[in-house]
């Protein structure tokens, strides 16, 4: 924690150092009548024409702008529609207040030409930001512009908030840019010079179609939307990145992304190849990772040191989005998106897994050394079509086709020792596997509501999927016991598996049910809705198991393990939903309470056909259940907003056939599972809580938001284990029903941002707490295993203009497993990671950045430090970039992770990247409209 | 021959009348982007304060206004569901709670009957726009009355009790008092449910009997009224039976005298604020297309609402497709000021009297509510300014900051 305090102190000192600022106050009046002019725009510009601060005069024409830089020539510009603008230079030499009395003269009473560029104004219910009012570098992107606008915060995770409210949807000309839901593709690529205006408004949430506000009868507008309107001349263009790098240890990486758009169509291609564990992912991720300028760069989008093994990744893909209509807002959509991606990984992983396992009077220590090589190739095709005619309807089709083939070879050597470190057993396993799979899915959503004819309102979703999986696995396993040699085994076995499954699921919600049933009668304002949910799943599995006879040198079918199974599940649930809302709005606050109760009847049929006689089992269930939800929200206008919801659900779980009649394969030397045909159904009670808070004060320099999300689950008669641990480390588990289990999960975050003129300080904190109690039997002793995990992450970030970004973070992770029975052992482990990061964009066109991660783990002797540094130079008018990366400068990184279960804790150490140096050259082709956007010398307009 | 002479005389008369009528159409030039500013004291005078008796719990909020009845002032407080009743000299009478009526009810003063009337839908029924049209078409069926609820407070009865009333034809058809015993209906709807395609934007009734209709339109599919519901705005003048009326999507303001009507003013707007010709001829395909048009053309003229004329000024509220602004037109200089740009000075106690919302008019007098704190602050800072007589004792009593004070004022003659 010490480094964190040091950083905090340094940041505090830095902030204080910048507190020596000046202030300008004054008044704006009509020169002729001497009447004060309200809402005149007073803007202070720096010598490079950039806006330092601006304010609108109050109802007495007064303004007061503080925290201005000293000893710097500043331009004060006062403008008001219909008046001649007033401009004057000032220079503040000490921390005192300068006063200006501004008298504006009318341009002409009859015809007034408005030339003033107002930074922000309301147009009806829409807040409009005018990019022309902000003087910035010619190649500045939207993200940099947004950071200059009062009230807008760009958080270090890319989230955008406006006066504390989160922007939930970002559109370009009313459509998702490049068909993507990620705002960064637009905000980090589109130059400010291509933007006509940025609009902010509340938009109707299509997920709430048919659930109109009870009081107003209108759809609920709950999505804060940012729409970037492009200039007419910039409605077509292209941008992208192509880069290649090579370094020591034969490390290399290459990236390509190119995106083109016009009024109706956009298309993009992306590709990547590296052996630096850098995640390339799908086409959308490739676009995200190759944007032109990132105001707050993600220094972790580099060679991934946290990834297991050395991976050679490749990916290539393309996307095409076509709008059949030219609508500039999101009421009407008629759009198709098609994407294709081919990706793959060649991996080499060595790992060491150390496990502490609790056993009666004899805790076991298991060391597993493994080496794995694998080669995987995937093809993904996706198609999405969306058609909407208004906010009251929604039609979406999603289709996907995936194929995947994987070849892998693994070798594992396991040693089990007792508490006195005596070797109890060993197991050497060699596996060679070949797997081919394909998956197809089709989803169809259609929702409609009609204010004139509510009886015609409904909401339907259909989903169908099919997957096929064929694999061959050769396993050689040699188990040797040092306590009882009669238990020694040797197996050389082949598994040929063919799986197929088909799933069709759907739900139909009839929102016009109340109108149909009661006509115009309002039933005390209670909304009624009838839903039908159904599901059909058919899965077949054929496993041919053969044992190799070394004498005959051929495989013989193992009839005990070979099996064929077919399972059909038919489920149908009619649901009656009743809901009612209460709300109150005054000029000062809004508060609303909504209640929902659902009554449902689960009808299930489970048919099993198998080559194993016992598994031919047909079952039917009928289970009446209910769910409830309570939601409260409160908004104090221009102050803060919070909401809290609690929901309860109850459902039945019946034991799967694999738990009733498990197939026991003795090749799994240490983990043998035995079924229990007497298992009963279990009942799950679940309570969830969600609470959010955020400030909405446009005048405040602070933006605060927080969230807590929790769930408590109580299972009655759950399926747990009765375990017998052999001295040799073998574990035989029987499924049993215990009395009850419980689990609590809480995750939460709290973020604060403080604006300091053009600088900002952000503190982001998030955490997770998980606890659970699972009753079981261990070596015949009744026990309750308590597990707990606590994770806390802090990140403090200081942004000094766009020149310097300093971040400091701390991650604390703590795991424990504690059995209640005497004679069983408790275990715990922990890890602490301290992170420091710095980005310096100075001098012009040069960026230095560095990250240091110090990782302390309770299972390793001394901390590990990962230090990466980068230097980048932009040239060719901002379109070329040369970057040098120095990774793991201290050459001591190890991949370590901790885990906890009810039977103990484990620590895993794998191979991974080690020190390397890399030189990368990137080129950014960019053109928006007719004029190519190139870096020019800083504009000086005055 | 005699017949021919009469015809010629008639044609001559008409020719003479036509230019006279034409010359009555005055033009108001308005450039919304460049509407001017001025001192408030150039427009307003005869300011009189009516301090209201201090009563715990009565505080002025953003959206309060005062309504003027025959014998009382009342302040509707929608959020607290109450009506605060005062005498004309500011003495508090009673707070009448109407919370029990339900969320949707709102008090409206009916000058004709001197009652505060609450008419709303019966919350036991949920009506769609189509239902409302069907009910309007069959308004005379007794069973349709169950969809509405009406309550009234008779201001001639000093118990001020809320009494249940029976919804009448006027309530169901949204007809309002016009003059004398004449009612008008100015609701404009298009729907395929109407069998007769002819309707009028503005209709007058006497004793539930249709008298006259103005501005015919297609009740089924008039392009400019498709997928919307519009209303004629009617503004009375200082003279009984003389009113100004303004139509949706029309830049002309009409004057009515009794049952005759003529064009009085025309609002002249720049091209960017004027509706294109296609708006009147090409029908919107659906409601969404109409909403898109409104959002994309937020500063195009929708309708003139408030309209009041004095010898020197015209005070009017313009609704654009997505925005609203109040203006004052100065007849002498042919200039238009935006009310937001009009600033008070110390001669009017720095009180912003002309505002966009919260002004009520009765005859030639305007009424606005002001918080006591604004007056206290002004006189605290300007000790040399004499306190008006009617405020002396009120301010000395150091009233709570949010206590309402009525300001009565007139436009300068």
Give the key terms.
heterodimer; A: 942 residues; mainly beta; Immunoglobulin-like; 5-stranded mixed β-sheet; 6 helices; globular; B: alpha+beta; 7 helices; signal (chain B)
Largest sheet of chain A: 26 strands, antiparallel, barrel
Average of pLDDT of chain A: 87
CATH class descriptor of the domain at 20-233 in chain A:
Mainly Beta
Count of runs of 4 or more consecutive helical residues of chain A: 6
**Biggest sheet details of chain B:** 5 strands, mixed
> How would you classify the helix and strand content of chain B by structural class?
alpha+beta
Task: Identify the strand order in the major beta sheet of chain B.
Answer: 1-20-19-18-17
Description of the molecule:
The complex is a heterodimer of chains A (942) and B (413). With 942 residues, chain A is mainly β. Helices cover 4% and strands 61% of the residues of chain A. Among the domains of chain A are: 20-233, Immunoglobulins (Immunoglobulin-like, Sandwich), CATH 2.60.40.10; 576-597 and 614-796, no CATH class. In chain A, a hairpin with a 5-residue loop joins strand 10 (152-154) and strand 11 (160-162). The radius of gyration of chain A is 32 Å and the shape is globular. Chain B is α+β, with helices and mostly antiparallel strands and 413 residues long. Helices cover 17% and strands 38% of the residues of chain B. Chain B contains 7 helices and 27 strands. Chain B has a 5-stranded mixed β-sheet. A 4-stranded antiparallel β-sheet of chain B has the order 2-27-26-25. In chain B, a hairpin with a 2-residue loop joins strand 25 (359-362) and strand 26 (365-371). The radius of gyration of chain B is 24 Å and the shape is globular. The interface between A and B is large, with 46 and 47 residues.
């Amino acid at each position: 924690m010490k480094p964190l305090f040091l950083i905090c102190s340094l940041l505090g000192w830095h902030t204080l150092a910048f507190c020596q600022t000046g202030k300008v106050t004054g008044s704006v009046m009509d020169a002729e009548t001497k009447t004060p002019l309200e809402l005149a725009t007073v803007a202070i510009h720096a010598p490079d024409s950039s806006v330092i601060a601006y304010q609108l005069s109050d109802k007495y024409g007064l303004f007061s702008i503080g925290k201005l830089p000293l000893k710097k020539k500043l331009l004060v510009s006062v403008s008001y529609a219909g008046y001649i603008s007033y401009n004057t230079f000032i220079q503040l030499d000490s921390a005192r207040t300068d006063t200006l009395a501004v008298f504006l003269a009318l341009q002409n009473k009859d015809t007034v030409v408005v030339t003033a560029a107002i930074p922000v104004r309301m147009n009806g219910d829409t807040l409009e930001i005018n990019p022309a009012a902000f003087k910035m570098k010619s190649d500045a992107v939207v993200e940099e512009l947004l950071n200059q606008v009062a009230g807008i915060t760009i958080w270090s995770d890319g989230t955008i908030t406006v006066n504390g409210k989160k922007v939930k949807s970002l559109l370009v000309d009313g459509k998702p840019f490049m068909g993507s839901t990620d705002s960064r593709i637009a905000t980090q690529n589109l130059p400010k010079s291509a933007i006509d205006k940025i609009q902010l408004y509340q938009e109707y949430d299509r997920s709430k179609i048919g659930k109109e506000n009870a009081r107003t009868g209108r759809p609920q507008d709950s999505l804060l939307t940012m729409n970037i309107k492009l200039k007419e001349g910039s409605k077509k263009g292209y941008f992208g990145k192509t880069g290649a790098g090579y370094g020591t240890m034969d490390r290399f990486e290459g990236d390509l992304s190119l995106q083109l758009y016009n009024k109706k169509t956009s298309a993009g291609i992306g590709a990547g190849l590296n052996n630096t564990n850098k995640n390339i992912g799908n086409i959308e991720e490739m676009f995200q990772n190759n944007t032109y300028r990132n105001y707050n760069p993600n220094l972790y989008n580099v060679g991934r040191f946290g990834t297991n093994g050395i991976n050679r990744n490749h990916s290539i893909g393309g996307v095409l989005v076509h709008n059949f209509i030219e609508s500039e807002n999101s009421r009407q959509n008629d759009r198709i998106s098609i994407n294709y991606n081919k990706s793959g990984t060649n991996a080499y992983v060595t790992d060491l897994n150390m496990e502490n396992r609790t056993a009666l009077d004899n805790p076991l220590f298991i060391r597993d050394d493994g080496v794995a090589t694998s080669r995987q190739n995937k093809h993904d095709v996706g198609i999405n079509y969306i058609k909407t005619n208004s906010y009251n309807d929604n039609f979406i089709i999603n289709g996907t086709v995936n194929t995947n083939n994987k070849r892998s070879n693994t070798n594992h050597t396991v040693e089990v020792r007792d508490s006195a470190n005596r070797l109890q057993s060993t197991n050497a396993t060699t596996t060679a596997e070949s797997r081919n799979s394909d998956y197809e899915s089709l989803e169809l959503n259609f929702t409609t509501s009609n204010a004139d004819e509510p009886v015609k309102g409904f909401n339907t979703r259909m989903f169908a999927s099919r997957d096929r999986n064929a694999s061959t696995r050769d396993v050689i396993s040699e188990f040797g016991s040092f306590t009882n040699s009669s238990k020694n085994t040797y197996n050389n076995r082949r598994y040929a598996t063919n799986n197929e499954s088909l799933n069709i699921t759907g739900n139909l919600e009839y929102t016009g049910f109340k109108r149909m049933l009661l006509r115009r009668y309002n039933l005390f304002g209670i909304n009624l809705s009838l839903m039908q949910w159904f599901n059909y799943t058919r899965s077949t599995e054929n496993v041919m198991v053969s044992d190799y006879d070394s004498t005959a040198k051929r495989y013989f079918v193992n009839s005990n393990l070979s099996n064929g199974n077919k399972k059909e599940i038919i489920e149908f649930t009619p649901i009656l939903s009743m809901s009612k809302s209460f709300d109150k709005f005054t000029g000062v606050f809004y508060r609303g309470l909504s209640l929902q109760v659902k009554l449902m009847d689960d009808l299930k049929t489970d048919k099993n056909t198998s080559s194993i006689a016992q598994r031919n089992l047909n079952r039917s269930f009928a289970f009446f259940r209910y769910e409830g939800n309570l939601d409260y929200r409160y908004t104090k206008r221009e102050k803060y907003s919070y909401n809290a919801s609690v929901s309860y659900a109850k459902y039945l779980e019946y034991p799967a056939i694999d738990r009733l009649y498990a197939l026991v394969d003795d090749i799994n030397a240490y983990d043998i599972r035995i079924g229990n045909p007497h298992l009963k159904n279990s009942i799950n009670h679940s309570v969830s809580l969600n609470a959010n808070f955020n400030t909405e004060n446009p005048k405040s320099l602070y933006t605060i938001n927080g969230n807590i999300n929790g769930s408590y689950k109580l299972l009655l008669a759950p399926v747990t284990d009765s375990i017998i641990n052999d001295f040799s480390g073998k574990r035989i588990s029987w499924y049993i029903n215990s009395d009850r289990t419980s689990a609590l999960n809480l995750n939460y975050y709290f973020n604060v941002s403080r604006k300091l003129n053009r600088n900002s300080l952000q503190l982001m904190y998030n955490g997770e707490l998980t606890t659970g109690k699972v009753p079981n039997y261990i070596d015949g002793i009744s026990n309750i295993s308590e597990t707990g995990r606590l994770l806390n992450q802090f990140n403090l970030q200081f942004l000094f203009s766009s020149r310097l970004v300093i971040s400091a973070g701390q991650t604390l992770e703590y795991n424990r497993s504690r059995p209640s029975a005497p004679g069983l052992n408790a275990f715990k482990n922990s890890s602490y990671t301290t992170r420091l990061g710095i980005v310096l964009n100075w001098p012009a066109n040069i960026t230095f950045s560095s990250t240091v991660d110090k990782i302390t783990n309770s299972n390793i002797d001394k901390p590990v430090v990962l230090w990466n540094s980068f230097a980048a130079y932009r040239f060719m008018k901002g379109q070329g970039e040369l970057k040098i990366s120095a990774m793991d400068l201290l050459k001591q990184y190890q991949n370590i992770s901790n885990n906890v279960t009810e039977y103990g804790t484990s620590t895993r150490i794998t191979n991974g990247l080690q020190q390397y140096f890399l030189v990368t050259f990137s080129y950014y082709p960019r053109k928006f409209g007719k004029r190519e956007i190139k870096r020019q010398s800083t504009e000086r307009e005055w | 021959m005699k017949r021919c002479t009469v015809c010629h005389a008639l044609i001559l008369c008409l020719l003479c009348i036509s230019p006279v009528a034409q010359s009555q159409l005055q033009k108001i030039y308005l450039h919304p982007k460049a509407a001017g500013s001025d001192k408030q004291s150039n427009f307003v005078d005869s300011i009189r304060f009516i301090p209201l008796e201090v009563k715990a719990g009565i505080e002025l909020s953003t959206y309060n206004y005062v309504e003027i009845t025959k014998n009382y002032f009342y302040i509707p407080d929608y959020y607290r569901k109450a009506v605060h009743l005062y005498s004309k000299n500011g003495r508090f009478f009673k707070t009448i709670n109407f919370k029990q009526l339900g969320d949707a009810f709102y008090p409206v003063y009916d000058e004709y009957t001197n009652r505060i009337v609450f008419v709303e839908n019966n919350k036991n029924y949920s009506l769609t726009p189509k239902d409302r049209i069907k009910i309007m078409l069959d308004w005379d069926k007794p069973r349709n009355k169950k969809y509405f609820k009406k309550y009234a407070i008779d201001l001639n009865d000093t118990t001020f009790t809320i009494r249940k009333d029976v919804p009448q034809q006027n309530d169901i058809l949204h007809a309002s008092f016009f003059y004398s015993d004449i009612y008008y209906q100015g609701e404009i709807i298009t729907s395929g449910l109407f069998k007769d395609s002819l309707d009028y934007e503005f209709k007058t009734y006497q004793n539930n009997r249709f008298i006259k209709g103005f501005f015919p339109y297609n009740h089924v599919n008039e392009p400019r009224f498709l997928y919307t519901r519009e209303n004629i705005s009617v503004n009375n003048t200082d003279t009984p039976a003389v009113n100004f009326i303004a139509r949706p999507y029309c830049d002309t303001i009409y004057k009515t005298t009794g049952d005759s009507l003529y064009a009085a003013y025309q609002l002249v707007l720049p091209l960017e604020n004027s509706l294109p010709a296609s708006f009147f001829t090409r029908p919107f395909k659906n409601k969404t297309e109409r909403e898109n048009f409104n959002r994309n053309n937020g500063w195009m003229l929708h309708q003139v609402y408030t309209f009041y004329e004095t010898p020197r000024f015209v005070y009017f509220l313009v609704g654009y497709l997505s925005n609203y602004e109040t203006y004052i037109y100065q007849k002498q200089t042919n200039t238009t000021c935006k009310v937001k740009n009009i600033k008070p000075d110390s001669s009017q106690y720095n009180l912003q009297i002309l505002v966009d919302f919260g002004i009520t008019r009765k005859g030639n007098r305007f009424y606005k509510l002001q918080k006591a704190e604004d007056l206290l602050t002004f006189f605290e800072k300007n000790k040399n300014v004499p306190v008006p007589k009617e405020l002396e004792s009120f301010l000395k009593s150091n009233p709570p900051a949010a206590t309402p004070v009525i300001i009565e004022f007139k436009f300068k003659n």
